[in-house]
Amino acid sequence: MSGIRxxxxxxxxxxxxxxxxxxxxxxxxxxxxxxxxxxxxxxLSAADLSGADLGGGMLAETVLQDAVLVGxxxxxxxxxxxVLDGADLTGAGLVKAVLDDASLRRTKLDGADLGxxxxxxxxxxxxxxxxxxxHGTALLGTLFQGADLTGAxxxxxxxxxxxxxxxxxxxxxxxxYGPMTVEGDGRRDEVGGRAMELWLNGRGADVRVIDPDARxxxxxxxxxxxxxxxxxxxxxxxxxxxxxxxxxxxTRNLRWEATEYLRxxxxxxxxxxxxxxxxxxxxxxxxxxxxxxxxxP
Length: 297
Description:
By secondary structure, the chain is α/β, with parallel strands linked by helices. It is built from four helices and twelve strands, in the order H-E-E-E-E-E-E-H-E-E-E-E-E-H-E-H. Keywords: Repeat.
């Protein structure tokens, strides 16, 4: 079916799905420039939404089988339980998207950005994630048997995935939290720490498994317009004790107090960005705030 093109507003529907209800929903969405796409449970199989802005869209349990979604932006989109088997998401943006329980079998995600996305219990068997960005991604119970992770990038990624001898990890690099599960010979074995590094790196990866008891304290500066790293709006830290993380912010009370900022950010519920900083930078911020508030009557 012919599509709808509104390149300026990125409401791009290059090919409509065959399902009449789904096609009507896309036409309506294309005509409402400020509306989010809400098509939960509808059948958008074989639709072409390449380059479209679907940020914040509601696509839970939506069927996107064999859809063409090249370069599509799914920032913070809800795709829980969605079916994207065989879909092409090359170069797609899935930052902070929620794909828990989704099906990504044979899905092409080459070069896609899945930073801070959630893929818990997602079926990504035989999916291709060549060169994909998986920074901070939650891969808990994710099925990667037969998946291709060649050249994918990791950073503090929760890699609690299921892999097997057919999972390709050549060039996979970065840092992860384990353990993962290795499937083979009719059994599943939990593999973490040094054994996890050996399994991955022995197959061409360059991965470091983070020891939660050895991470110490990591500091972050909250940044934004008018608040550069050198003068942030605030500083938070994450420290570990007996393998349990504790998040704290330096407050106007001139002490470190518990905060939910980092966890909310990881869940996609906080728009304030942050960057990792050194302990010296954090100490400088604390000193500056203490001096400033100490001058106030």
